């Protein structure tokens, strides 16, 4: 079948209905009678004739004879049925309607009455029947149309696993077919050659592979093909510095035109290599293979991706100086992977580079100094960053990174100045606090006093300033501050069984545990706020009445200072009653 040929290919089935009519004497000539039947009153009931016709006689209550017709409905297939069915007697001149019903997925294809087609009707009525008649109901399985559309049909076609679909370009292609209900078939996209590929389906199909269909309705499938394309990547570099320090693909010394290209399968592409002023081509690489110092190259019959790299060199050996100055040689330094190392005892502060070489410079302040490197207008084409770092003590350091090109003399100055503030870090260890807590910045030349306070029941074991012990003092003052400092207070573990632990993080001060100690679980609960953790040692005696609208956690098995866990649960000889809020228990046994 081609195009949209809709001719029936399914199996037609029929139901035959035979209408047998027995005539009275209406002037119609009948065949010879061959058989008679009579009733118990010796009245003629039936006559059979040699032409196969039958006449039946009936009588009313007073003995008058009535002529009836017998209609025989006989189903000869399982594809449909008639209602009524079987033998049916119709009185002469009467009417009767017969209904035709196909089974699921079948339909009435035609009804033939006495050899004449009545079309695909669902019923037929006999009116004033004059003679025997024959009725045939023909059924056929439902059939559905499958249409295939190929976009870019000159690139590929679609075929079917069951003959019928062969859709592409040209007059010899068939893009539509009608199939019986329940037919399963596979549509397969077929590119014409290696230059093309299948991009995907739409409509009744999806994905990029073969499409399996079950014909239970009219369906359309759309196939898309395309021509393969391949990229040609280009890059250039200058031999005096193959890869720039800021990363990425080298792009100096000259140009390649076009800078990138996409070529169809089997196509050609010409590229042109042009050096900048003062440069010359030293080599060209096609797919990483050198072909010499050519000024153009043509990729022929492209069937895959390719690359081209052009290498250039400074024809006149023209050198450009880059100079770095630091206002205080001990306040910081400037370095470059290309050879500059200036400050902090290093003295290479100037160097000449080949024309258009890219040079990365990094300026970093020393401890106690700050400030960024000054960049002359237009000199730093690739400014990477200007940022402030903090070391482990919170001391800031200033960093400048940039990449410049040696196209003319460049002068950079790093101006570093002393810091105007210094950090002091307070570190409590164990049960107590240092105030102010954490990391505090203090202006140069100022004083700062710290107060050391043990938690309830705890004692100060020792205080160290910049790792030097000053004894178990309760306060300490830093005078005329001109550098960073650290103060650490160590507290002894008190002989108290319950403590509240709060883990607090504040700004640059870092994160620390703070503890307060209590004699009973009830005391700790009464002092707690929502979210607190209450730590207990291995044994406690006493009740807890949790009657506040807070949520706390009680953790058993705590070691001294709540810095660890013994692994043994806390046994509480008492009761815990909750009337408000919530209490979570871990490693707790109640007796």
What's the overall geometry?
flat
**Helix/strand class:** mainly beta
The strand count comes to 58
Quickly count the helices: 1
- Which strand-content bin applies to the residues? over 45%
Low-confidence stretches: 1-31, 69-77, 240-251
Distance between the termini: 92 Å
Q: What integer is the average pLDDT?
A: 78
Roughly how much helix do the residues carry, as a percent range? under 10%
Largest sheet: 9 strands, antiparallel
How large is the radius of gyration? 52 Å
Number of domains: 6
Provide an overview of this structure.
- The N terminus is likely disordered.
- It contains 1 helix and 58 strands.
- The strands form 14 sheets. Strands 1, 2, 3, 4, 5, 7, 9, 10 and 12 form a 9-stranded antiparallel sheet that branches.
- The radius of gyration is 52 Å and the shape is flat.
- The chain folds into 6 domains: 130 residues, no CATH class; 85 residues, Immunoglobulin-like (Sandwich), CATH 2.60.40; 86 residues, Immunoglobulin-like; 97 residues, Immunoglobulin-like (Sandwich); 75 residues; 80 residues, no CATH class.
- The longest helix is centred in the last third of the chain and has 7 residues.
- The chain is mostly beta strands and 591 residues long.
Keywords:
mainly beta; 1 helix; Immunoglobulin-like; disordered N terminus; nine-stranded antiparallel sheet; 591 residues; 6 domains; six-stranded antiparallel sheet; single chain
